[in-house]
Structure formats: C-alpha cells, structure tokens
Amino acid sequence: MIIILGAIIVLASVVGGFTMAGGNILTLIHISEFVIIGGAALGALIIMSPKAVLINVFKRVAAAFKGTPFNQNTYEELFKALYELFLLGRRNGMIALEDHITEPEKSSIFSKYPSFLKNKQAVAFLCNGLMPIVDGRIKPDQLKMLMETELDSMEDEIHAPVNVLTKAADAMPGFGIVAAVLGIVITMGSIAGPIEHIGEQVAAALVGTFLGIFIAYGFMNPLAVNVEFINTAEMDYTRCIASAVIGFANGMAPIMAIEVARRGLPNDLKPEADELESMLKAIKPVNKG
What we know:
Blueprint: H1 2-20, H2 31-48, H3 51-66, H4 72-92, H5 98-102, H6 114-118, H7 120-135, H8 143-189, H9 195-249, H10 254-263, H11 273-281
C-alpha cells in the first residue's frame, strides 16, 4: 500500500507539473513507446537472470507491495515459540524436541503461534538448526559455524533479485533512448510532411527518453531499494532465530537465549527486557514432547 501511494505521488507530481506548464497529458501517451521500453526491460530481465532468480524477482516485488511482515507481534510470537521449545528441551532433554522439529506442522507448540508457523522458511531454518543437536551429530560449539554458513547462503540468494532489478532499472534510460531513436527514424521518413505532423512525431520520440528515465528513477530503483529493506528485515528475523538457538545449544537458560536474540533487533522492533521477561513467564508451557 505504501509503495502504491508513493508511486501515485511521483506520477501525480510529474504529470501535474507538466499540465500546469501548459502540456497536454495525451501527448505523453504513446503505446508504441511503452511496448518498446517494457518489452526491452522484460527481455533484459530474462537474459540476465537464471530461472530461479527470475521467479524470485517477481516474488520479491510482490512481497514488497504487501509490505514487511516482520513487526512487533511477529517477533513476540517467535520469542514465545522459541521459549516454549527451549524450556521443553531443558526440562525433558533435547530428545523431547524431536517430534516438534521433524513434523513442525503437527507441533503442539508451533500451532499456538500461527505467524511463525506460516513462515515456512523460518520454521525450516529453526528445525534444521536444532536437528543436528537433537541427533547428537555435532557438538554445541560447532553449531554456530553450521548456522552461519546457512545464513550466508540465504543472504546471497535473497540479494540476487535486488541486483537483477537494479541492473534492469539502470538500463531503462538506455531503452528510452532506443525508443527515441526509432521515433526519430520514423520522423525522418516523413520529413517532407506537414510541420504539425513532424512535431507530433518528434514529441512521441522524446516521450521514449522521458519514460525510460522516469521509470528507472521514479519507480524501478526505488522499488529495488524497498525490496532490499524487506530482505534485510527477513535476514534480521532469521539471524534472531540463529542467535537464540546457538545460545541455547551452548547451555544458556531459555530466557537468556531469547535475551541474546532480542538484543540483536532494530530498536523499533525490540521489546523492553522487562516486558519480554513478563511475556515469557506468563506462558503456560508444554510439558511433554
């Protein structure tokens, strides 16, 4: 919604200023220019992107229009789910967590926190982090390296669509020039025609340059920055899980492991320490696996 509002403001300011200066809005509407620029941009995206990255570009753009799903309520549910899980592991042994992390969709703990359970990637990351400890395949002090390696891989994957979108945006002024040159070629073919007709064709050609620059700096580059912010919020959420899991695996009390994770959050999402402690102590934990 915020992106749509921003786009409306950008479009209204440019078009409004143009009409206030005496311009006719209809002179900016040339379907052929949109076809040339839009088709070239789409083709460039396809050429520069592997299939998985291309699909991810459209997914990330759609997610940006929805806005970030990571808010204070999301983190509260995450902390509660982690606390219950850690408390169960502390009281009944790590083996008590096996059923919850092998079939998280059936977990009596995770089912209490729908926003966390809905985030399939976060749930998988948590379960994959705990599984080697529950199985006894690695020592707790080896878990940090394992989870950081996975975090690095995730970060590279989610930043690839931003790089592609930014490069496509940077190419838009060039595509606008291509559209303008093609318009001039058409104009030169009818140079002996009426001066009004030639003027219309030159104006149409210049619209191509305008659209390329306007779309690049008015929409696509700002959209790429917004996607980057969404990606950063997602990685903050995932790192929060990693911090808590690593702390707990290395012997921290459940509430202290959550405190470590809390301290890594941005200030606008970070609950106060007393507030977090009261919230966690009010939970009625699951006493069996």
